[in-house]
Amino acid sequence: MWTTPARLRAKNIIGMNRRNIRYIGRYNNRRLYPLVDDKLKTKLLAQEYGITTPALIGTVTTQFGVKHIREMLVGHAGFVIKPAKGSGGKGILVIERVEGDRYIKPSGARLSLEDVERHVSNILSGLYSLGGSPDVALVEALINFDDSFAEYTYEGVPDIRVIVFKGYPVMAMMRLSTAASDGKANLHQGAVGVGIDIASGTAIRGVQFDRTRHDHPDTGHELASLHIPGWETLLMLAAGCYEMTGLGYLGTDMVLDRAHGPMLLELNARPGLAIQMANGEGLRSRLDLIERQPDGVSAEERVVFSQHHFARSSELRETA
């Protein structure tokens, strides 16, 4: 359905030009981009700051090293291979389990060792990296996501995106993998986006392919009851990424592991704008309010401020 610029302004929607010039260009120093554009650097930085990330099994940096991937994977029932400089979920290979000489994806697809080696080789050649530059393949332990999300996702790990501006959590959504997204939590590939109330960690509304959804397309489970446990801890983790990186406009992607709690997956210095669609509200008024706040406020105070000023009621419950 078509809309007009006036309607978008009334909903406080920001577009890419305003995001790039007003927020990214003004608040993100380009020299800091490598800290978040390279997932390996992000992981090492997070370790310095005591922020939990998925365990690193190993890295592959050369084509010669590709032939040693089998030895690296021995003893690991499941794992994830991803490009250090990838974006948008491209190039991420999730292996749920190993059966004999076959590597099984969450969809049930069976890969050979040669398939895995080819994927790693493609990562190194820069097939999935920003700008096509040569890359490094990261091999991480598989995340055992919190059991409370089992009915809300399909063949993949759900993650939580929080936009952080000047250290304040501004807007959040949960991304639920689907059959259409091949088990990846990527909205452009068909995952379901669920807007999350900053105050409570509960679902506001759901969307898939830019259309409203009230249930998960594969499991059939309704979305209204979705609630993220340990929500304030997760917000504190997101807010702390401001001090960790020095970036003023930031996307933080996190997961809830059943054993380790909130874990940082990756950071994004140019987070997308689909989060506005998932929340049914634009970012502009929230960003304007934060720009008027003084500097030097602690992470705890910033989280309390956001929870107080950005509380929302659930459209899913209102329409159920």
UniProtKB/TrEMBL annotation:
GO BP terms: SOS response
Record-annotated ATP-grasp domain positions: 43-298
Signal peptide as annotated in the record: none
Keyword Repeat: no
PROSITE patterns in alphabetical order: ATP_GRASP
The keyword Transmembrane appears for this protein: no
GO CC entries: cytoplasm
A single GO molecular function term of this UniProt record: metal ion binding
Pfam families membership: ATPgrasp_ST
Keyword entries, A-Z: ATP-binding, Ligase, Manganese, Nucleotide-binding
Gene3D superfamilies per record: ATP-grasp fold, B domain
PANTHER family per record: BETA-CITRYLGLUTAMATE SYNTHASE B-RELATED, RIBOSOMAL PROTEIN S6 MODIFICATION PROTEIN
NCBIfam families in UniProt: rimK_rel_E_lig
This protein's name: Alpha-L-glutamate ligase-like protein
Organism: Halomonas urmiana
Species classification: Bacteria, Pseudomonadati, Pseudomonadota, Gammaproteobacteria, Oceanospirillales
